[in-house]
Amino acid sequence: MVEFGTTVNSKSSATTMRIRRLGHLGNSQMFIAQASGTEEDMNRFTRRGLLSGVAAAGTGVLIAPGAPRALAQSTPAAGRSETQVVVVGAGLAGLTAARELVAAGCEVLVVEARDRVGGRTVNQAVTAPGANPGTIVEVGGQWVGPTQDRVLGLIQQLGLETFKTYDAGDYADYHNGKLTRYGHVFPTDPLNLGLNRIPPSDPVGAAEAAAAIQELDRMAQRVPLDAPWTADDARTLDGQTFEDWMNHHLAQPGAKSLISLVINAVLSVEPRDVSLLHVLFYIASAGGLDRLVRTSDGAQESRIVGGSQRISLEMARELGPRVLLNAPVTRIDQDPAGVSVHGDTFSVRAKRCVVTAPPALAARIRYTPPLPGTRDQLTQRIPMGSVIKVQCVYPTPFWRAAGLAGQATSDTGLVRTTFDNSPPDANVGVLLGFIEGEQGRQADQMSATQRRRDVIECFARYFGEQAADPLEYIEKNWLEEEWTRGGYGGVFTPGTWLDFGIALRAPVGQIHWAGTETATIWNGYMDGAIRSGERVAKEVTSSL
Asked: How far is residue 144's CA from residue 152's CA, in Å, rounded to a whole number?
């Protein structure tokens, strides 16, 4: 059992291991492990090793957050522990919450189902011939941009750096079987919006799409971020899909195609899948639709040197042994005295619990007593989007020499949006593509070989024959990721905000909710996840 008030200096390099008996819990003796010592000494221990060593002495063991444990733990979590706050999930929301709670003087334990931290952010090494050692690509969330103050501030606090996404040169658009190059701004720009990435392949459709974007921004400004269900006409807005709105307000097929592509790219769903009110809320939470789709001065403006997962890795390093990996939570029990979080081989007793999993996954945990009907019904109505992230590695970013930015849009094929995802030193070239919405669902049913072939065909269609022979092909199918089951995040179906939105952030007894889906600003983004962690930490500390 962890003694409340125990402190851990995760940066300390000097230690000894000491186990001190504290008392009794039922028929089991309570112990606390206090750690200090060299890093080499710490690496000799894991929670599993500590458990087996003490259990061999015939003792019931409860693990202390001070016990040394390598973050690269490969064995399932085991044993019983006690702390003040248990956080479920070691993504950006969970790690931020834990970091803030520790700073406030709370005892915290983070339990993570995966064998890594980072949640929906993951770095992957590039192994292509000629790639410099240490070259990575992100196979999950990766970009940061203006007004994302929380993630940018955290990057600075952790001593990380950013670099600009490559955005020089022309864009490409493949429409009705024809490839067109165009500048960054729609040339005729009849509404003087200065909008980015509106291809001129269909000028009439593009003009109508530009007007639609302006109207959506206007409508979004009237949606209260903390309570979208209280918006004027909320019943009408949440009573229809975004496709319903498109069918009533857009006459040109080209405009419908462009706006559908925006929904695919931003939410990784189809317009028929999502409530109009949710789209407006999402736009408002980012400060405008143009900001969502822009590269320069937008959500895709910058990347983190070394990859976005470094944010979570650095926070986990600070938290040290407070982070427990390979610990899937199956059940959460509440009683008047506190909350117990259980996995198949472990349990944690705490005063408060923070759940950061996406609503659809949080619903798979068994709760005793059962969650209120409104909360459970909410989670039944927030499915994850469908996205597969694909990348091809080449000897050089050859498209740059041809005057292209590496960014393409298309009305056909699996990959309909692309970016230049090359490392900052451009020691290799990387084209990134997204397979989203309906295409993502179709691609998930393909063989890996067929999917790879179709992706490369798309890249060659947009950037020429040099794209047909990559050195390396990398993909991440988020639909198949066990502890995410889709991406980029959960989306609200019609009626969900109106009837169930009030339950999104409301605590249920000793259980509190975080995660990017609960954010009011930059919902669905890394910044939103961090904001949700900060919010829930304040909520918990005020309740203790």
From this structure: 7
pTM of the full structure: 0.87
Tell me how far apart the alpha carbons of residues 140 and 122 are, in angstroms, rounded to a whole number.
5
Q: Give the integer Cα–Cα distance in Å for 387 and 269.
A: 8
Confidence (pLDDT) at 241: 98
Instruction: Please state, in angstroms and rounded to a whole number, the distance separating the CA atoms of residues 516 and 78.
Output: 29
pLDDT (tens digit per residue) in 239-287? 999 999 999 999 999 999 999 999 999 999 999 999 999 999 999 999 9
Beta carbons of 327 and 341 less than 8 angstroms apart? no
Phi, psi dihedral angles at 320 (to 5 degrees):
55, -130
Neighbouring CB atoms inside 10 A of 76's CB total: 15
Using omega within 30 degrees of 0 as the cis cutoff, is the peptide bond preceding 190 cis? Answer: no
**406 DSSP assignment:** E
CB burial of 422-431 (b: ≥16 within 10 Å; e: otherwise) equals bbeeebbbbb
Q: Write the pLDDT tens digit of every residue in 418-437.
A: 999 999 999 999 999 999 99
Please name the residues in contact with 150: beta carbons below 8 A apart, sequence gap of 6 or more: 522, 527, 530, 531, 534
